[in-house]
Amino acid sequence: MTPVPDRNLALELIRVTETAALAAGPWVGRGDKISADGAAVKAMRSMINTVDMAGIVVIGEGEKDNAPMLHDGEEVGNGLGPKCDVAVDPIDGTSLTASGANGAISVISLAPRGAMFDPSGVFYMDKIVTGPEGGDKIDISAPVKYNLEVVAKAKKRSISDLTVVVLNRPRHDNLIKEIRDAGARVKLIQDGDVAAAIDAVRPSTSVDLLMGIGGTPEGVITAAAMICLGGVIQGVLRPKDRSEKESAIAAGYQLDKIYLTKDLVNSDDVFMAATGITDGELLKGIRYSEYGAISQSLVMRGQSHTVRFVETEHHLK
Question: Over the stretch 177-207, which tens digit does the pLDDT of each residue have?
């Protein structure tokens, strides 16, 4: 037994996200996100319990929309390995899966026990994410144009060359206008901001930043990815109503605090794996063949900044 996650966990995690993605695959485009999510959760739960770890789910799936879930506090793994915090999203992009749209993934991340921020009190967070070039200069409390200017300067480009990914929600109308008025492009997505955040950090993608309000659990998973990739996330909690605000304050959450990457995941010893469900810029989705299916996955490790892409042929009965 080891006190912290070991490198041999990395490729085991791909098996977990592959299993969930394969279970979700038959539901792509069928308009039933609840059934898709249920199939992915059931499959992920069965596989995650074969992994050599004593995991506790810190970030479960489904609490916002009452979908089936791997619930917060659930013990996962076979109990024989390191003590870990676990963040899971069997489908990041249930609506994308149901509609057959691009960008749905299955994702899991691990960190040593106690390293992950508990987002259960506030479901939404205002976020800004970018790569290592401008990561030490961005400031979520500053105007949109300022952040575009510092990222453009760090990348030795003009603002007009930048693309910002934003969730397509009415709450972002002013943000979208500010981005465009500053001269940058906007890429609107319907769902799946974890994959979009990774796109904003990976080299040779069409995205330079992610901005806007999305899920706090997804923000913590994104922080794990940033540790692996050298990127940066900043976030401010945004309660959805007065009741949630009062509950958050009573629980000790700081609503005026800017949460940095290490506030959300306080360790470099993190692992993250993701498998594509539908095609996206980050990963290809599940494809079917005469013998079964083909999946594409990504696995990353924080300490070494290793990034692996794995394509797997699944011979299915």
Answer: 999 999 999 999 999 899 999 999 998 788 9
Determine the pLDDT at residue 64: 41
Taking alpha carbons only, the member of 48, 56, 40, 49 closest to residue 105 is 40
Which stretch of DSSP H or E encloses residue 242? helix 242-250
Cα dihedral: 273, 279, 282, 284 (round 10): 60
Q: How far apart are CA 202 and CA 188, in angstroms?
A: 18
Strand-pair partners of 87: 59, 109
**pTM of the shown model:** 0.91
* Residue 300 near residue 201 (C-beta atoms within 8 A): no
Residue 305 and residue 258: Cα distance in Å, rounded?
A: 25
Which residues, other chains included, contact 84 with Cβ-Cβ below 8 Å and sequence gap of 6+? 5, 53, 54, 55, 56, 77, 110, 111, 112, 113
Non-local (6+) Cβ contacts of 296 within 8 A are 275, 276, 283, 284, 285, 309, 310, 311, 312
